[in-house]
Each structure stands twice: as structure tokens, then as C-alpha cells.
Design a protein that fits this description.
The protein is 16% helix and 34% strand. With 716 residues, the chain is α+β, with helices and mostly antiparallel strands. Among the domains are: 143 residues, TolB, C-terminal domain (Neuraminidase, 6 Propeller); 249 residues, Rossmann fold, CATH 3.40.50.1820. Strand 10 and strand 11 form a beta hairpin. Helix 1 runs antiparallel to helix 11.
Length: 716
């Protein structure tokens, strides 16, 4: 007997755009095929960059753009492979940089951008931009972070913790500094510098090419942690030195190492004196952090920051004696903002200083300061007396600016979006993310003369967010609705997808990978709300410091206020079905939302959540919460384990078991606390995954798992 409409059983609705998760994973978040890391020659004639050959090709080649044409000058697949077998130090470097590709993932050039060097699986390769094939350079061991000297006659590299130099033809290899123990390295950054400060280098050539300024890192005082893969019991755990809050940091010193074998220790000051240091409940003026270093025409220089982060000094170094002279002192009662590229100086020696007399970090170049309200994000380059930097006056946009004494401050980028640039001579390569997608534009003397092709695949979904300012704090938000949704046609369950932390803005006028994911969830029937609350970048010092001492309460409250304000403006939002999902700090915020505000949030997916604030690193966590022995209550209040007995809503915890940034211990401690409190929850371990999920099957199916969990939990 045929089924009637009334008798036919209900079938689950087929997800809209069902292939999106696999497409998202296969394209590595639609990042494959994007040109990256442009370098412009000083004469402006040549542009180097890395990119694959398509939107699904994970192997980056080295390309040269010249006279409006591009060509591959180094193809890893023709040189013996994509460089998947990495030395441990290089694997760590790529993990800190969140690299999602193989092949030529990074490179360095001489001053003229004629000689280019890179590594593949620890093998050092070189190629010249004026023609010829790449050649292998013999080294004393697997090479990490090779860098040519300015005239290209030597290449410095690190192997087994030693800093060495070799000629491009493989001759003359010499040891510049050997590690005194297994805990010492020369020429590389420590974990905190690379992960939390943003300094990814550990050696810098002199302009004459006869010496290097090099970091010596001793991790002996740092606690040893172990990262294991339980799915492979034959594989031994990996030991790593992790400076957890309240414990010892790595000891970083600087040395001038000469090619002739000479060596001069840099006499760094031990601490900021009381006269130039802001007091506080916890005071530690010891200069434990090297936030930046370099060697320009005026000599080597270094920026050091105190353990409590309230003092930062820029020091000039005498390379002959190692003596230092204070060029600038910056102090703050809460913390000193570390702006990449600053403090520093121009090629003529004019100092670049971050201003501290307003709510936003500005830039002072000699006697001139950036316009009031312009929030400086990074100093990109100095070319002669001209300075290039990124800044915003609207938190949803970041633009490229330039300064020179004759013209003052000029904005270079025009289209709303997030822009950065590479500069050489009169050429600017504008690297842009806008509402129409990514682009890389070549400008000469301010006029566009070409584009470097973007080969990324077009996602199946087209983000169409409504940009909002919500509530009394004008919370910058974006609302994604299902395509074709008619107001009043039906009620929509709400899904919040925040990050909400200090390291990242999501609400920008640009198509980023998270905007495609948000739109995909919207196409499954959700109203998706993304909000940047207090503590996120781009809205000044006061906004950032609203989370000082409390990283939980204000950030959760901002998500509550945002969803309520959005529902007032869009009545189709169903406040009886509100879920939240996120990763890293966003995962922490998602779990905190259902634990602390179950009256608002009805389900959560928390990925890689730093649940126990006592398990994160010194520089990042102590900036917000101070020393755990001085402020134990702050760490208790901000740790999710404190609220385990409050869980009454569905919670899915996701974590990569090989995560060495947010260790697996976070989710295990939270799950144990929930179990002890008798609270039902789910845990999804990702075998072999680090803080960044790159496995195609895991990354694609994780989105499907999240969708199924959210629909089941909200009874959608």
C-alpha cells in the first residue's frame, strides 16, 4: 500500500551546501592559492612571493613577478619533494606560525633581493632572481631559518641549536656559536617570543655582512611538558619546554658574533629602575622578554620588556663593546603595548616611538605624531626617511599608511577592508582582504600597475553579513541570515560564533575563512551572530584593558548583550534556542557561556579551550591576570573548572591531542571536574591534531559533527 502524505515518516532535512565542509578542509580554509609573503626589491623592479598552483595545491612554490609577468623560480616538487619531513626546530617554527602548507613556506633574501634562500625538509636551497636553476647548499646538518647577509656572500643558518654561516656555493662553512648544553640554542626565538610576543626571528645580519646579532636561549630553567599521541602507543611523548604562568621563563641573552670568530656579549640591563617603572600590586621589573631586535645603518638595537610588562626600553648596542644606551623608555600602569616594528628608527636614525598619551597606540616619528584617534597596528617598513605602517580609525577596517617629512601622513589603501603591504623603492604591493575577497595589487608611485593572481577556489557560499553596532557599548557585530530569508516568515535558532580574545578580530569588512563558515551555518537554518567584545583589538587601550584581571565576566556579558540587542532589531531571532561555538579563546568563551549563563545559552561547542588559566604561558596570561601566587582568586575566577557544577546545558568539548599551545590537560581537567560534579557532557578528541586542525577528514567532518550536535541540542 503506497504511503500517504499523512503516513509518510518525517525525513531529516538534507544540509544546504553539503559539500562545503569537505571543500573548506580540502582548500585549508580557502587559503591555498593565495599569494603570500611578498618581498619587493629595493629598486622596486621585482616582487617575490610564495603560492601554490591552484586552490587545492598545498605545496607552495617560490614565484617572481617582474614586468607584469610571473614565473616560478623554485618548485619543491622538482627539487625532491614538498619538504614534509622537517627538523624538529622547523616543525616548531611552522606550528608557531600556524602554517597550513608545505613546500617553500618561508624564505629570505639578500638586501638587493637577488639571492633567495629557503629550506625543504632541512635541506638548504638557493636561487637567484636574475636567472638559473635553484641549487642545493651543503650544510653541517639540517638547516633552519637561513638568512643571507646583505651582499649575499654568506648565509647564516641554525642546525642542532648552533648558529653557522656558509657561502652560497657551500664552501667555508663555519661555526659561529655552539650550544653549551642540550637546553641552549643560538639564533632561534624561544616559545614565548614566537607564540605570544610575535618575534619569530633569532638572528640579524649587520649591514656590512661581517657579523650577526644573535639570541642565545637557555630553556634549562623552564618546566618540561610532554605532548603524546595516545592513538600511537609505540610513539614516545615529545618533550617541550613550556613556561607556564608563575614559573621561570627561558633565559634570553644577545651576542654579537663575527665571521672572524670574535664574540661580544650584549650588556642588557637587568631590570627597569624604580624611577622609570610603574608600581603595582605585583611588581617585577626584571627584563625577561626580548620583544624585538635588529641591526640597521645606525647599529644593532633591541627592545626589552619587564616580566610584569609595565616597562619597555629600546636600547642601542655598541657592537664593539656590547654596551647599551637607552634610546626610549615606555611605561604603563597596566601593560605596555607591543606594536610590531616599533619602537625603532628610520634609515636616517630618526626614532619611531609608540605614543602613550592617548587611548590608542599612535606613532611618533621624530617630532611628528599620527593623527589623533589613529590606532597603529604595525610598522611595516622604513625606506629612507619614509615609514610605512598599518592603522585603523574604524575597528572594522585596517589600512596602509605612509609618512615622510615632506608629505606627512597619507593613507595608501582606499577600499574598505583589511590591508597590509610590502615596499621597495617606489613599488608597494598591497595585500588586501575586502568584502569582495582577497587581492594583491602592485602599485608604482601610488598608481596600480598590475595584480598578482589569486588562485584560491571560490567557496560555495557567499557571505552577506549585516554589519551592526549593538547595545550601549556599540559592540561591533555581524549577523548572517539564511539566503532568501523573509522577515517574519519563521523563527530562527541563533548561533554565536565569537573569538572574543585579545589576539584576533572577526568583525571586519572582509571575507575571511570564518565568514564563509558563519554563512554556511546560516544556510543550515541559523541566524549566526559574530561579535567582537571587550578585550578584542582595534578599539583602543581602555577597551583592551576592560579584561584586565577578569577575562571571563565582561566577555560573556558582551555576548549576552549582543544577542539580546540583535533580537530587538531582528525579531525572527529565537532567544529560546541560542547556541555558541568557538575555538581557542573562542572555545573558552563558548564553554564559559553555558556554564555561567545557562539562562541565555542553551548549547555550546568548545574547541581547544584554555579551561585552566594556570596552564597557559607567562607573557600572554600574566598580562591579563598577573602572577598566580599574587592573584590566586583571579585565576580561580577565570578558570572554567570553577564552574563545572553549574553545567545544565549540552556541551561538546573538542581538542587536538597533540596541541602544544593549549595542552590537552585543559580539556581533561575540565572534563574531570564536570564528571566529579555529575554533569553530563561530551568530549571529542582529535588524534594527532595540534592547535590547528589540518587533517582533511578531521577538519571537514568536524563541521558536520558540530552541526549535528547543535541541531540535536536545540531540537532544531
Amino acid at each position: 500500500m503506497p504511503e500517504t502524505a499523512a503516513a509518510r515518516p518525517a525525513r531529516p532535512a538534507r544540509p544546504a551546501f553539503p559539500d562545503f565542509p569537505r571543500h573548506f578542509a580540502r582548500t585549508r580554509r580557502f587559503s591555498l592559492g593565495l599569494p603570500a609573503h611578498p618581498t619587493v626589491s629595493p629598486d622596486g623592479a621585482r616582487v617575490l612571493f610564495v603560492r601554490g598552483t591552484s586552490g587545492t595545491d598545498p605545496v607552495r612554490r617560490l614565484w617572481l613577478y617582474e614586468d607584469g609577468e610571473e614565473r616560478v623560480i623554485a618548485d619543491p616538487l622538482l627539487l625532491g619533494g614538498g619538504g614534509e619531513d622537517l627538523p624538529e626546530a622547523e616543525r616548531i617554527r611552522q606550528e608557531r606560525a600556524r602554517t597550513r602548507t608545505t613546500g617553500v613556506v618561508s624564505y629570505a633574501t639578500d638586501a638587493a633581493a637577488h639571492l633567495v634562500v629557503f629550506t625543504l625538509g632541512g635541506t638548504l636551497w638557493a636561487v637567484r632572481t636574475d636567472g638559473g636553476d635553484p641549487w642545493r647548499v651543503a650544510t653541517a646538518g639540517p638547516a633552519v631559518d637561513p638568512r643571507p647577509c646583505p651582499d649575499g656572500s654568506w648565509i647564516a643558518y641554525v642546525t642542532d641549536g648552533a648558529l653557522r654561516a656558509v657561502r652560497p656555493d657551500g664552501t667555508g662553512d663555519r661555526l659561529l656559536a655552539a650550544p653549551e648544553s642540550a637546553e641552549v640554542t643560538y639564533g632561534l626565538p624561544d616559545h614565548t617570543a614566537a607564540e605570544s610576543i610575535g618575534r619569530d626571528r633569532g638572528h640579524w645580519w649587520s649591514p656590512a655582512g661581517d657579523a650577526l646579532l644573535a639570541a642565545r636561549v637557555d630553556t634549562g630553567p623552564v618546566r618540561t611538558w610532554y605532548v603524546a599521541d595516545p592513538a600511537d602507543p609505540q610513539k614516545p611523548p615529545r618533550a617541550m619546554r613550556y613556561p607556564v604562568v608563575g614559573t621561570a621563563n627561558a633565559l634570553t641573552s644577545l651576542h654579537v658574533l663575527r665571521l672572524d670568530g670574535g664574540r661580544t656579549p650584549v650588556l642588557l640591563p637587568a631590570a627597569a629602575d624604580a624611577e622609570h617603572h610603574e608600581p603595582g600590586p605585583w611588581t617585577d621589573p626584571a627584563f625577561e622578554y626580548v620583544t624585538a631586535a635588529g641591526w640597521d645603518a645606525s647599529g644593532p638595537l633591541v627592545a626589552v620588556q619587564s616580566r610584569d610588562q609595565r616597562s619597555l626600553h629600546l636600547l642601542a648596542i655598541d657592537p664593539a663593546t656590547g654596551a647599551t644606551t637607552v634610546l626610549q623608555r615606555v611605561r604603563d600602569r597596566v601593560w605596555v603595548d607591543v606594536v610590531p616594528g616599533a619602537p625603532g628608527r628610520t634609515a636616517a636614525g630618526t626614532p619611531l616611538a609608540v605614543t602613550t598619551d592617548g587611548d590608542v597606540p599612535g606613532l611618533r616619528i621624530g617630532a611628528d605624531a599620527t593623527p589623533a584617534g589613529l590606532h597603529v597596528r604595525e610598522v611595516i617598513a622604513t625606506v629612507g626617511d619614509r615609514v610605512w605602517f598599518t592603522a585603523n580609525d574604524d575597528p572594522t577596517e585596517v589600512h596602509v599608511w605612509s609618512y615622510d617629512p615632506g608629505r606627512g601622513f597619507v593613507r595608501v589603501s582606499a577600499e574598505p577592508g583589511v590591508h597590509t603591504a610590502a615596499v621597495g623603492g617606489g613599488t608597494v604591493v598591497l595585500d588586501s582582504l575586502t568584502e569582495s575577497g582577497p587581492s594583491m595589487t602592485v602599485l608604482k608611485d601610488g598608481e596600480p600597475v598590475g595584480r598578482i593572481p589569486v588562485l584560491a577556489e571560490e567557496p560555495q557560499v557567499t557571505p552577506a553579513p549585516v554589519l551592526l553596532r549593538l547595545g550601549e557599548r556599540e559592540l561591533r557585530s555581524q549577523l548572517y541570515l539564511p539566503s532568501g530569508h523573509e522577515p517574519g516568515a519563521r523563527r530562527l535558532p541563533v548561533l554565536l560564533c565569537p573569538y572574543g580574545g585579545a589576539g584576533l578580530q572577526l568583525v571586519v569588512r572582509a571575507r575571511e575563512w570564518w565568514s564563509y563558515v558563519a554563512q554556511w551555518f546560516a544556510e543550515q537554518g541559523f541566524a549566526v551572530l559574530v561579535t567582537d567584545g571587550r578585550g578584542t583589538p582595534g578599539r583602543g587601550r581602555a577597551w583592551a584593558r576592560e579584561v584586565h584581571g577578569d577575562r571571563l565576566t565582561p566577555t560573556v556579558q558582551d555576548q549576552v548583550d549582543a544577542v539580546h540587542a540583535a533580537a530587538e532589531r531582528f525579531p525572527d531571532l529565537d532567544l529560546d534556542a541560542v547556541a555558541i561555538r568557538g575555538w581557542s579563546y573562542g572555545g573558552y568563551l563558548a564553554a564559559a557561556a553555558v556554564l555561567c549563563r545557562p539562562d541565555v545559552f542553551h548549547a555550546a561547542v568548545a574547541g581547544a579551550a584554555p579551561a585552566d588559566r594556570r596552564l597557559y604561558d607567562t607573557h600572554w596570561e600574566e598580562r591579563f591576570l598577573g602572577h598566580p601566587e599574587v592573584f590566586p582568586d583571579a585565576y580561580d575566577h577565570n578558570s572554567l573548572t570553577t564552574y563545572a557544577d553549574r553545567l545544565v546545558r549540552p556541551l561538546l568539548l573538542v581538542h587536538g591531542v597533540a596541541d602544544d599551545n593549549v595542552h590537552l590537560a585543559h580539556v581533561l581537567r575540565l572534563s574531570s571536574a564536570l564528571l566529579a560534579a555529575g554533569r553530563e557532557h561530551s568530549v571529542l578528541p582529535l588524534s594527532g591534531a595540534s592547535h590547528m586542525v589540518t587533517d582533511e577528514e578531521q577538519a571537514g567532518n568536524l563541521l558536520r559533527q558540530e552541526l549535528a550536535f547543535l541541531k540535536k541540542s536545540l531540537k532544531v
